[in-house]
Amino acid sequence: MQEKKFSYRRLMFTTFVISGCSMVYELLISSVSSYLLGDSILQFSITIGLYMCAMGLGSYLSKFIKVQLFDWFIFVEIGVGILGGTSSILLFLANVYLESYSLVMYSEIILIGVLVGLEIPLLTRIIEENAGNLRITLSSIFSFDYIGGLAGSIAFPLLLLPQLGYFSTAFLVGAMNLGISLFILYSYRQYIGRTALWKVMIYISGAGMILGMLFSENLASGIEQGLYRDKVIYSEQTPYQKLVLTKHKDDVRLYINGNIQFSSMDEYRYHEVLVHVPMSAAKKREKVLILGGGDGLAVREVLKYKEVQQIDLVDLDAGVTELCRNHKDIKKLNEGSLDRAKLKIYNEDAYEFLENNAGKALYDVILVDMPDPNSETVNKLYTDLFYRLCSRNLSDEGVMAVQSTSPYYAGDAFWCIHETVKQEMPFVYPYHVQVPSFGDWGFQLASKTEIQIENLTLQQEGKFLTQDNLQGIFLFGEDERSKKELEVNSLSSPKLLQYYLEAEKNWE
């Protein structure tokens, strides 16, 4: 009887899938670490570098595997599936309960990387030993490897993370690795020795991954609660960021990627100062542009001016505006401002909005209410080019206010924003306010014509801001002023991000 010819086509499919899985693990660990620790550039750089090094080590170690290549390959896939599938939950648990998060992260990267590094050498040798023709083997296997990596890198940000979140994504991709090991087991069982052992391990591990996916929301809720002081009442992973809402008695707090955006107990201090200072300094208040501010709290304050005819709100994440439009606690806080007739919401990038709108319609007041510049993505919205675009969209007598982080906790960052705005606006006046949930918080008031700050009359008083304390917010203590010369923040030289991350480290 003639022996059946070895078919390697199924191994090409295997290469495609495991390469995509490998890429997802790399992105997943980087993203989780960025979410938990901040400084995404550092987290992605460390993960990619260490992962590649570990893969190199795995490739080197493959030379010591001389027999039972199929068995070793199944072992590797089971190991990758278990380690990768549980990677997210282990990282979150380490952050909540252990002091040595970095040790857990590095261990995961190295172990998964070493096993992934074994995969392609083992597959190459399996095909070469059974089918021959090294030239075709190498070209085919690396082609499917690279294409699979592309598929994984696209699927992670566009499909997996937005739809499934960190935990379900890890469990699903871990299950895919286990599925591949089962696929190989049944496709090439005549070449495999320990089929019974591998079946038991695959089925048990696979059941764990499936249960993990089914109960991922419960797991996420339980573990995520440990990250926040108050009870988590809402959690959502949007295509752009993680939204978490907490509540304790009457205190409702919104967090984006782990960073507090507001507390209902004192947000009025922040928003009164952000809105009423520039609105009082402006000669006209008919057209107002709000960049960021998807919570609707700045809109609430702007609506107190009867002369306002049009408010354009630009917030990239529709998840934020929908949450704050519909959630009863936030809707009560913003007084339903996101449903008002004067307001038009644009869920698009603020930078692109300003570029497209330049020269079409000028605004009397622009309020820049962006998150802190703690990533390269947000840093773009604090650059000289961004403020140049703001200036082009501002009328000659218009006024702009910019959220500028804390002059006390992040002094260099605050004054860097001040210097950057000064590059594009002739007159810039720094001011600040104490917000208990944030601390000392700062802003920049900017205009094309000079503002007589000492003669400024408040057009709308609030719970905190009154005419009596208006002048005080423009005064700074000596310890809130930068003692060194700071560089302007630009796209090509993101100095602000450096200043901000240095401040974060100083206050850890």
UniProtKB/TrEMBL annotation:
Pathway of action: Amine and polyamine biosynthesis; spermidine biosynthesis; spermidine from putrescine: step 1/1
Keyword list, A-Z: Cell membrane, Membrane, Polyamine biosynthesis, Spermidine biosynthesis, Transferase, Transmembrane, Transmembrane helix
Pfam families: Spermine_synth
Record-linked InterPro entries: PABS, PABS_CS, SAM-dependent_MTases_sf, Spermi_synthase
Domain (PABS) ranges: 212-448
Complex and partners: Homodimer or homotetramer.
Protein name from the UniProt record: Polyamine aminopropyltransferase
Species per Swiss-Prot/TrEMBL record: Blautia hansenii (Ruminococcus hansenii)
Native organism taxonomy: Bacteria, Bacillati, Bacillota, Clostridia, Lachnospirales
The encoding gene: speE_1
